[in-house]
Amino acid sequence: MANSTTANRSAPRRIVRRAWNDLLSIYYANTPIWRWFKSGGLLVFGFFCWSAASLLLSYRPDWTFLHYVMAYGFALIVWGPLTHFVIVPLAIRLRRTAEHPAARFFARNVSKINLSVFVVIVIVLAVVQFSPMMLDFGGAFESDSGSEVTADLECEQTDDLITCQLTSTEGVDRIEVTSGDREVAIVDDPGGPFEIRVDALEEVVGQKQYSVALYDEDGNRVGVFRRSAR
Amino acid sequence: MAHRFDVLGLFDNEYDEDGFRMCGITGLNVHRSVENHVKLFGLTALVYLIIGGIFAITVATTRWEAIGLLDATDYYIHLSMHAWSMLLFWIVFMEVGILYVGGPMVLGRRLPLTKFAKLGYLTMVAGTITVYYSIWTTSAPDQAPLLTAYIPLPSAPLFYGGALLFVLGVVVASLPFFVALWNEKRENKGESLPLVTFGAFITSIIAVEALLGGVVAFAGGLLWRLEILQFDPAAYRMWFWIVGHGTQQINLVAMIVVWYFLTHVVGGAEVVSEKVSRTAFVLYLFFINMGAAHHLLVDPGISTGWRIWNTSYAFYGATLASLIHAFAIPAGIEAGRRKRGKGGGLFGWLTSAPWRNPAFSAPILAIILFGFLGGITGVLMGQLQLNMAWHNTFATVGHFHSTVVLGTTITFMGLIYFLIRTMFMRQFISTKLASAQPFLYGGAMGITALMMMYVGILYGVPRRTPEVVENIPRAGYEFSLDAATPLFAVFGIFAVIAIIGGALFIALAVLSVLFGERIEPGGDWDLVADGGTKSAGTKIAQSRESLEMADDPDDPVHAYEMRGTFVLCLIFLTAFVITYILNWYLITQLWSIGA
C-alpha cells in the first residue's frame, strides 16, 4: 500500500518527501562519527554565515536582514555542536528510557523545543545586537598603548648632507637615526630639523640607507621611516 | 640485521637474501635501500617540523598583539625561520621520500644510485644549516629574508649560498627516482606506470622546473649580493616565484599522490577512472605553474595580456584538474567501500570508514579543509581582479596556511603515521591520542586560517608586520584596525591550540618510533579498512586482496553508485559559488561600479 501511495505522488512531492526524510535521518543520526560530522559542519557553516554577513554589512549597513544571518551564524557556532553532541543523543536516550508521562512528552518534543529556543535566540541576537556578535568588543579590549603619532618625515639632500624634519611632533619625544648597526644621530628635540652626514651611512650593494625611529616619552618605539641617500 | 650505527634499531627490518621484504599492508615488494632512505628523509623532515613548530609559537604569540612577544626585528627573523623550516625544509624532505615511495617502492625495485641519494641528503642538510645560520645571525644592514628575499632587500650572502646549496641537494637526491623510472621503462617497454608512480613522475617534472628557477634566482641573488653582477628586481621576482610558488605546486601534486595512495591502502578506495585521473595530472603539468603568476599581478612592467592569460584563462586548467581529483578521490572511496558492502544509505560509506585510523582520517581531513579553505581561496586570489583585494593582506597568509598546512602538512602527518606502522613497524604509544590528533590539529588550524583570511579581507590587515592594531598611526586617517582585535584574540587562542596539536603529533611520532611496541609480520591487520581479510584463521592485512570481501570482486567499479560523492560535490560547488559571488560583490563595492 505504501508503495502504491508513494507511486501516486507527483515527482516533485516524492523528491521533497525523500529529501525531508533524508534530512530527518541525518538530524537524528547518532553514531560518534555522525555527531562529529554534524557538529563540525555546523560550526564551519556558522562561522561562514557570521563572517560573510559581517563582511557584507560593513559595505551595506542598511541591509538589516544581514543582522539575522549574522545572528544565525553566530548562534550556530555554539548551538550546532550543542544540539548534535548533547541534545539529540540525550533525546534519543530519553525516548527509550523515560517512563514518567512528563518525561515522555518532553522526549517526544525536545527537538521542537530545541529548535524553538534556537530561533528565539537568533531573533533576540538580531534585534538586540549583542556586542561581540557585531565584532564590537569596545572597552573590554581597549588599551592605552595605541600610538597617536601622525608625523611624516621630510628629508632633503644637498651634496653630502641630509636635512630632515618631522611634520608633527605629537607623541614623539626622541628620534634615533641608524644606518646598518651604526647609530648616526640622536635627536632629543624632535621639533627642529636635524642633519645626517651621507659619509656616515653604511653602503650595501650600492645603496646608502638609514632608519629614523621615533620614540615616545616612555621609550616605546612609535614609528620608523626608512630612507635612502642618493 | 641492523647497521652498527643504528643504535636505536630504527633500520632493522628483516629482508630476504636479495634485500626485499613483502609489506603486509600494501602487498608491495620493498627493497631495503628504498625503505631505509625513505625512513631517513622522513625522520629528518620531522626534525624540521619541530624547528618550524617552535618558531610557530613565537610568531603566533607576536602576531596576537595582546601578547606581542617579539619586537619587529626579531619577529622578522623568527618568521623567516618558521617559513623556511615549514614551507621548504619539512615539506621538501618529505617529498623526496615520497618520490622514493612513488617510484622504486611501488615498482618493486631497489633504489639506484644510493650514493647520490646520500650525497643529495647531506647537501640538503648542509644547505638548511647554512640558511638557518644566516637568518639567525642577520644584522643590519642585512635583512632577514622571510621566504621571498626580494632583491634589492639585502640578505646575507650566506643565505643565498645556503638556499642554492639546498636546491642543488634536492636535484641530486631526486636523481635516483628518475633512474629508477628509466630502468623500469627500459625493462618493461610499452607498460604504463601505476597511477601513484605516474603522479610522482608529474610531481618530479614540476619539481625540476621549480628547482631550475631556484638555481637562477638564488645563484643570481648571491652574485648580486656579492656585487659581481646586476640583477633586475622585476626579473628576480619572476625567477624567484618559479621556485617560491613552484615548490608549493610540488606540495599540491605530491599531496594528491599521497591521497590516492593512502585512501586506497587504508580506506579501501578504488580508482574510478585511471584515464581521467591521469588526465588531471597532465593538466597540472601544463597549468599549475601559472599559479605563481598571482604574486606578480600588482608588479609594474608586466602587460595586462600576460596577467589575464596566466590568471584568468590558463590557470583554470589547473582548477579543472583539482576539481577532477576532488571528485575522483571521494568517488573512489565511495565506490570501493560500497563494493565491499560498506556503503549503506547516502553517506554510509563515509560514516563506516576507519576514522580512528589517523592514516585515513588525516588525508580525508586534508581533502576537506584544503578543498573548502585553500582551494576555493586559491582560485579567488589567483584571479586578476580579485587578487587586488587579497594581495599582501593577512588573508593571503590564511590562504597558504589552508593549502600548505591544512592540506600538505596534515596529509604528510598521515603519511608519517603510516610509515611508523608499516616501515618502522611500531605501534603508536597511544592509539587514542593518535586518533584524536588530526582532528585537534586540523580543527584548530582551520579556525586559525579562517581568522587570518577574515581580518585580511574585512579590515585589510597587512601581512609580514607584527603590529597593526596597537601601533599603526590612526589619528588623521579614516580607518582603524582596532575592530580586528577580537578576531585576533580568536586567532591567537586557536593558533596556540593548533601548536599544541602539532606538538602532540611530534610527541606521538617520535615516542612511537623510539618506544612503540614492535609489530611482528601480520600484526598490523587493523591498519587496513575493515580489518583486511581473514586467511586460515589469522587476519592478514593486504588491501590489494581485500576485495575478496566484496560480493563480486569482478564487478566493475562503475557498477556502484556514487550519489554521496555527488551530494558532497554539490555542497562544495555551492560554497565555491557563494564565496566567488561574495568576493566579486565586494570588489564592485570597492570600485563603486554602477554607483
What does this structure look like?
- Chain A is α+β, with helices and mostly antiparallel strands and 230 residues long.
- Helix content of chain A is 50%, strand content 21%.
- Chain A is built from 5 helices and 8 strands, in the order αααααββββββββ.
- Chain A has helices at residues 2-8, 11-28, 32-59, 65-97, 101-128, and strands at residues 153-158, 161-166, 174-179, 182-187, 194-197, 203-204, 207-215, 221-229.
- In chain A, the strands form 2 sheets. In chain A, strands 3, 4, 6, 7 and 8 form a 5-stranded antiparallel beta sheet that branches. In chain A, strands 1-2-5 form a 3-stranded antiparallel beta sheet, with no helix packed on it.
- In chain A, a hairpin with a 2-residue loop joins strand 6 and strand 7.
- The model of chain A has no long low-confidence stretch (mean pLDDT 84).
- With 595 residues, chain B is an all-alpha fold.
- Chain B has 17 helices and 4 strands.
- Chain B has helices at residues 32-63, 72-107, 114-136, 157-187, 195-225, 233-244, 246-267, 274-287, 304-313, 315-339, 348-351, 358-381, 384-390, 394-422, 431-459, 485-515, 563-590; strands at 20-22, 29-31, 533-535, 538-540.
- In chain B, the strands form 2 sheets. Chain B has a two-stranded antiparallel sheet. A two-stranded antiparallel ribbon of chain B has the order 3-4.
- In chain B, a hairpin with a 2-residue loop joins strand 3 (533-535) and strand 4 (538-540).
- The longest helix of chain B has 36 residues, at 72-107.
- Chain B is globular and about 65 Å long.
- Chain B starts with 19 loop residues before the first strand and ends in a 5-residue tail after the last helix.
- Residues 533-541 of chain B have low confidence and may be disordered.
- Chains A and B meet through helix 2, helix 3 and strand 8 of A and helix 15, helix 16 and helix 17 of B.
